[in-house]
Fold:
Amino acid sequence: MTKKSGRKQMTVSVCYGTCCVLNGAREVKQALEASLGRHRVPGRVKVTGGRCNAYCNLGPVVTVEPGGTVYGKVTAGDVEEIVKKHLVGGKVVKRLTIGEKPGLDSLPSLSDIGFFKDQVLIAMRNRGRIDPDSIDDYIANEGYLALPKALTEMKPEDIIDEVKKAGLRGRGGGGFPTGIKWGICRKSPGPDGKYVICNADEGDPGAFMDRSLLESDPHSVLEGMTIGARAIGADVGYIYVREEYPLALERVTKAIEVAHEYGLLGENILGTGFNFEINVVRGAGAFVCGEETALMASIEGEQGRPRPRPPFPAESGLWGKPTNVNNVETWANVAPIILRGGDWYASLGTEKSKGTKVFSLVGKIKNTGLIEVPMGTTLRQIIYDIGGGVLKDREFKAVQSGGPSGGCIPTSLIDLPVDYEELSKAGSIMGSGGLIVMDEDTCMVDVAHYFVAFLEEESCGKCTPCREGIRRMREILGRIVKGEGRRGDIDLLESLAVTIKEASLCGLGATAPNPVLTTLKYFRDEYEAHIYKKRCPAKVCKALIVYRVVADKCTGCQRCVKACPVGALAGARAQPHNLDQAKCIKCGACYEVCKFDAIAGDAIYVE
Amino acid sequence: MQKLSAEKLQSHYRDLKNRKKSRLVIVHMGTCGIASGSEGVLEAVLSASEELGKSGVTIKTTGCAGLCSREPMMTVELPGAPPVKYCDLDGAKAKQIYAEHVLGGKPVGKFVLGAGAESLH
Ligand SMILES: Cc1cc2nc3c(=O)[nH]c(=O)nc-3n(C[C@H](O)[C@H](O)[C@H](O)COP(=O)(O)O)c2cc1C
Structure:
């Protein structure tokens, strides 16, 4: 590096790949920041959490730009020398430089792959790295190191303060500040004990964050719950998992057993005198049982129906005792916060939404999967950089966030930074983190119909506006997609939405109209086309579309004749084929073969 | 396992961290991985290890690796080298990877998704 004007902006990157971090990269980063401060160079030098460079055996790795000098096996003790000699003095510290990448030049680096590049793991810190059935694997990766700190070095109030400082908010949907919730429950008198509950009901269609966390890293949830129980003063915990998650159930049950053997659960945990038990309860898989009061009723053996709040669970919850309910992902964030401090956690994210969020990215997207990104990452980054874009390079139309009670966000808002506030401004919600990507071939009225039909089935029926109102909405939408929409239907949907939202007890009814309201807000023209022109612009609603053969283009290859399951297509070889509309069930099989087969002539179209 | 005290937990952690590193084969087996065939991959790895040798090799399973659309996935981590992730696997590919990379030390480039670890905060 040449030291020209001495004013050149320099960047020091500390690799934050899992290997480097476990070898001490965090300490190196802290030492760098302190040393830069001492030498008064922060104006010229940036310290950034770098990405994995695949020098994993040489970590922690520090890169200095410009010049591209790579230092390996850097310890906090080496930092002063690097700063003094290189950053201030302009001379490379030869003793610490490393040469070529270790024989992997021809392989792509994970840090260059869009799907992994922009992800930052906290809740999923152990993903793909530990055996969920091995508690030793968890411990070897700094697991159960936060627990002794919370039990021996911190008072319950300190734990709560740390979680408040972190700015952690509930990952189950509502986004309520976790530290505040714990504080209320701690203060609530509980002479007969208190409970903590882990909500693993995860009823949103297309969402699998919580299942995967429990399957991959059950101890991270157990450790978080134990720390929370200590902060709140609870002695018994429940994990409520739906029966459809057999693998999660099996692994979390086993993890509890082993944690007992290690003295990490049960009586006198780690010899500190603290007692805490965790029980697993299997839910029958009703969406409404994810609502906390319905969930508690279900644990008590009652019907899973919500009840009015107040009293809030923190005052009178399970069996009338003070109870704190948190989502799986919320619990999984607790141990790292205690281990590294609230400030560390709060350094990621936006002003009001701190840390990271796990999303399940599904639908018409190239890379489907589970992702964890800092709050404030834009939809564009999530869909294009991480998700790789829309499947088959079709046009992006909307993304549905927040599950059935969420909303559809259109292309025009693709640069929306994803956090609690921004999503609700757009008319949707964070929900538990499902993101369903839709392309140009998705009919938004059909989507609204699907979600409303789901909610009609899942409404517990206690509140009339929810039970009857959602049913009426589904009937109206059902008519519209069948081409029987009437003038006034849109007004009726809007007025029903207001009543259902206002007059329902729980969040199910209060959010049920969201899919209809957001699609009406952003895609009103599609509703109008269905109702007034009897057309489905996305060509999805069967009652409103017709398949036709263009005689000029048809090569007479008979592929469609073979593909048709009902014999609606006929015609001799090399002659234009006929489509019998009376028989056609509009399955689209002929369209698919005609469009994508090389011999066929793309002669079938939909209108 | 004897119940741990806070101090014993710390020393247990240190012992685990300083464990001698073996050649590590990880088959990712979340629900999505299993649904797309990771059990077949695990079987192939296990039978390859019986057939070709398994001294100094640790085979383990984890939960989901995140990228559902490229499952089944597997990671090979040799001492002193970064982890290498493989995707879109089946039994035959897994066996080849076991022979050439795990035992032979040479990654099978055509099945590799990427080398290196994921980013923590
Ligand atoms: C209809 C309905 C379904 C819900 N489903 C879930 C769920 O599946 N998982 C969850 O964690 N929270 C769910 N919630 C939110 C819970 O009531 C509760 O707010 C949450 O578990 C609190 O945890 P948190 O503060 O960590 O988010 C649901 C709420 C409603 C109204």
